[in-house]
Design goal:
The complex is a heterodimer of chains A (about 200) and B (about 160).
Chain A (H helix, E strand, L loop, with lengths): L11 H51 L4 E2 L2 E2 H42 L5 H34 L2 H46 L1
Antiparallel strand pairs in A: 1-2
Chain B lengths: L2 H44 L1 H33 L1 H8 L6 H31 L1 H35 L1
Helix pairs in contact in B: 1-2, 2-4, 3-4, 4-5
Classes of the chains: A mainly alpha (about 200), B mainly alpha (about 160).
Chain lengths: ~200, ~160
């Protein structure tokens, strides 16, 4: 006769948090499915415009000595391409925000499930932590797209913009690590309680 | 202090200082990573002025976070130092108070060296002489800690040499 296993009885709070985790995972997957393709196509269009500007239009404009309304043609072409890139990136920024929240939610579900405990507050902490780092990476990559065109318009613009990005990134990363510290602090508190139990046994 | 009391002391230190110190140190590390690997190289491609200003901004932010974390980190080291002392030094015949002092000083030395290595990319970009001056100060501080360690453990060392 086979071994009889006791059925696993979940508490109400465990069941609730599993349902929350599952619904969060479904919501995150839906967000990625809906906006993912749109973001990929927009990023592709951005890269194509950037390449065309960098390899074709700006070199052609730099070969021209004429000025338009007192401005060099190369500067005007760079400004037009920078505005086009900015419009595309601005129109998908909301989609990127939803995409990063979806990715953060999926990662939070997998990490939370792997640890054996699924808590609602933990999901929010994971989401905040991952959002912060992902936003800094995305803004940095966007800056790299713009830097050459901005330098052609005026050499000081990339430097000023980079300094503003660095200051913003410092605050964003500080906020992001607070969420990570909340997660780790909870596990450290549990480890400390285990230590106290061991101390009482001895 | 018995083992149980040491564990309770460490638990209290973790509870009081753990979360805040971890938050500050994690923030400092993340800002260091992004600063040294991303922002400062980007700024150096623009020009020396931009590199200098970005290095200064990241250095100031890093220093503020590390200085706020230092007292909590020190308290955690003080509470934790009992365990390596008990595991490695008391078993070799060192008295308990001396073993704790030796363990504490070794952890302080390691922390100071790691901190200098983290500051090195900033100092060398500001001026090569800065990193040299700070290194001399670090070596002097580590020498003082080593003297304190030697004072606490000289008897055990001489016993070991003569055995």
């Amino acid at each position: 006769m086979g071994e009889r296993k006791e059925p696993v009885v979940k508490t109400a709070s465990e069941d609730e948090s599993e349902k929350f985790g599952a619904s969060m995972y479904a919501e995150s997957s839906r967000a990625i499915r809906q906006v993912g393709a749109r973001v990929v196509l927009s990023v592709g269009a951005t890269i194509l415009i950037w390449l065309a500007g960098r390899l074709i239009f700006v070199p052609m404009a730099e070969g021209l000595t004429q000025q338009l309304l007192g401005y060099p043609v190369a500067g005007i072409v760079s400004a037009i391409i920078a505005v086009a890139l900015a419009v595309i990136i601005f129109t998908v920024f909301i989609d990127i925000r939803r995409l990063t929240s979806g990715l953060a939610g999926i990662m939070a579900y997998h990490f939370g499930k792997a640890s054996g405990e699924v808590q609602k507050a933990e999901y929010n902490n994971y989401r905040t932590a991952l959002d912060g780092v992902l936003y800094v990476v995305i803004v940095t990559l966007t800056y790299l797209l713009f830097v050459d065109y901005l330098a052609t318009i005026h050499p000081a613009i990339p430097a000023v913009l980079l300094i503003l990005i660095v200051i913003w990134a410092i605050f964003a990363l500080y906020r992001s690590t607070r969420a990570v510290a909340n997660i780790v602090g909870k596990y450290a508190s549990k480890a400390a309680d285990e230590l106290e139990k061991q101390a009482k046994k001895k | 202090m018995s083992t149980a009391e040491e564990l309770i002391n460490f638990k209290q230190a973790l509870r009081f200082y753990g979360a805040k110190t971890l938050h500050l140190l994690l923030s400092a590390m993340l800002i260091w990573l992004f600063g040294v690997l991303v922002f400062i190289p980007m700024a150096s491609s623009i020009g020396w002025d931009a590199e200098f200003v970005c290095t200064l901004i990241v250095l100031v932010a890093f220093t503020i976070l590390v200085s706020r974390a230092i007292s909590g980190f020190r308290n955690l080291i003080d509470a934790f130092s009992v365990f390596p002392a008990r595991k490695y030094l008391i078993k070799r015949g060192l008295a308990k108070e001396n073993a704790v002092v030796v363990s504490k000083q070794i952890l302080y030395m390691l922390s100071v060296v790691v901190l200098y290595l983290l500051y090195f990319p900033f100092l060398v970009r500001l001026h090569p002489a800065f990193s040299g001056m700070v290194l001399i100060l670090v070596v002097f501080f580590v020498f003082l800690l080593a003297l304190k360690t030697l004072r606490a453990s000289h008897r055990a060392i001489t016993d070991w040499l003569c055995s």
